[in-house]
Each structure stands twice: as C-alpha cells, then as structure tokens.
Amino acid sequence: MFNRFSDFFKTTLHPEMYHGKVMSPPFFEGWYFKVVDPRGQQRFAIIPGVFVGKTDTDSHAFVQVLDGSNIRVVYHRFPIDAFHSDQDHLALRIGDNHFSLDRIELNIQSTEMSVEGELRFENPVGWPIRLTSPGVMGWYAWVPRMECYHGVLGFDHGVQGGINVDGQYHDFSDGKGYIEKDWGKAFPQAWVWMQTNHFQQPRTCLTASVAIIPWLKTAFAGFIVGFWQDGKLQRFATYANSRIMELVVDDQHVRWQMRNRTHRLEILATQAEGGLLHAPTPEGMGRRIAETLNATIHVRLVNLKSGNVEFDGLGEYAGLEAVGDMEKLREMAVRS
User: Fold this and answer.
1) Which of 185, 215, 234 is the endpoint of a domain?
2) Which of 1, 71, 205, 278 is the most exposed place for a label (fewest CB within 10 A)?
3) SS (H, E, C) 128-172
4) Residue 151's domain is classified under what CATH number?
5) Are 246 and 159 in contact (CB under 8 A)?
6) DSSP 3-state of 231
7) How far apart are CA 299 and CA 226, in angstroms?
8) Which tens digits make up the pLDDT trace of 179-190?
9) pTM of the full predicted structure?
10) Per-residue CA distances from 201 to 154, 229, 232, 304 (Å)
C-alpha cells in the first residue's frame, strides 16, 4: 500500500512519467508530440501510447501518426510487450521507436506507412508544477480515479532534425514543437480542445480544453486554458475560479469567451478538415475522433481593470477537436 501511494505521489508531481504502475485496467496513456516545419508546410502529430485491458489479448502499444498537411492518419499497433518505460523520467520505447522530452527516434515499417528519422527538442517548458497544483489540472490532479488526466509538457520549443515518411524527407530544423499527454480510463463523452504556438508574436502558445467531467454520481463542465507568453502563463480554469461567458460551436467556428479575476480571454477558432484519430474507451482504442492541424485561432486578451487589450493575434497551424454533444457541453459550461 505504501509503495502504491509513493508511486502515485511521485507520478502526480511528474505528469510526464508513465502512470501505469498506479492505475488498474482498463487504462490508457498517450503522449502527443506536435511538430511544424519553419514554413508551416509540414505538420505532424506523433502519438505514442499504450492501452492496458483486463486481459493480455485486450492490451497493446501503439504509435499513431497524423499527417496534418495531407489529412492522413495511420495507427501502428504493437504487442504490449513491445512497450517499455523508465520509472524515473520520461523515456519510452515502443519497438524500435524511442520517445523522451528531448527527442524522438522513429523506425516504423508497415504497408500503410513507413516513418524513419530523429527529431530533437530544444528545452521544452511545461505547465508549472507545484505541490498544491501539480500541473495543468491543478488540485484535481490529486483526485484518484478520475476518468481522464491531462498534462502539458512543452508549450513552445525549437525542433531540429527530420523524418522520412514513405521515402520522402521532411526537414523540421528550426521549426516549432509542442508536447502534451493524457491518461486514465477513457476520453470524455464530449469536449473541445485546441492548441497553437504559431503566432506572429514569438514564444506564444494557447492550449485550451473544455469537457464534460464525471464527478461522483453527476457531471460538470470543466475547463483548462493556458495562454503562455515568453515564460508568463495566464490561467483560466475551473479550479482557479474562472468562468466561461460564451461557448458556441458550429461547423465553421468555435467562439469561446472566458474570464478570471484579472483578464478576459476571447477565442475565435476557424474549423478545418481533419483526420480520424483512434481514441480510448474502457473497451479499447476503437473510438474515432476528427482532429485537424489546419485550424486558425484568433486570440484577444483584455485586462479587466484597465480595459487595455494586452494581446491580439492569430495563431496558425492549430490543432482543433470538437467531439460529442456540443449543445450539452455548451449548456453545462455556461451554466457553471
């Protein structure tokens, strides 16, 4: 019992680490590496992960590749024993593929897609970790048996290196990267997620999500939004007494407005065609969800006290998902 508590304490304070030792099946964990080349012509999300079912036959590892430019998704499945993780830091191996906060090395050969190469990351900086608020989830990170946990591991960092995809080389040197992850039992029944770190203003990143969260015998709409600029993070979150004032989702746009004690954040995201990713349920990775890397997000940050507009800019090459019953999500989000 003590060892299990010790492992839970350690992994909660280190969200980048593998959490499988403290979670009972069914359980999933996935890391999300987004890379964009300097000209924005090549945009990839590379998602290594694992699903642990109640039996060995239900369990497997995977490396999912989203080619955002060509709107193509390939799910590479591996036996569960091909997955290995270091217990003290983020160091994954899935077959001949290696993943850490510093780099990823890919060697995938399949009839659907071949991917080879190395990408190196320059000093990723994630959501601050504190004892009372260990990362993006705040104090909710300490709550056991939540449906899904989330981590932001790298807001905006440089990328060096490249990958060969089906024999074609893509050079990402001097490009940009972003890293996050999820783990738990399943994805929510409905959510909106978006992210971009491609503004004209350098060292700027928006990461934002709102979802229906099961809580005891009921549910609520929880949201976590971070607007990061040159090392300074402006938080808007359920646990930080922030409030959603507007959330409207249609086939063309996501209009989202919120406030905390000092600022109002206005978001207008323009939807775009995406590929179908595999997403977790308690039964496996069979759920399919659309994600684009071709959206744009207009962001406006207003100081409530002075009325000054502290930021106004357009983020490109944005990741965007809007999944499930959007009207139910909107009603819950605005009501809360």
Assistant:
1) 185
2) 1
3) CECCCCECCCHHHHHCCCCCEEEEEEEEEEEEEEEEEECCEEEEC
4) 2.40.370
5) no
6) coil
7) 12
8) 999 999 999 999
9) 0.97
10) 18, 9, 14, 22
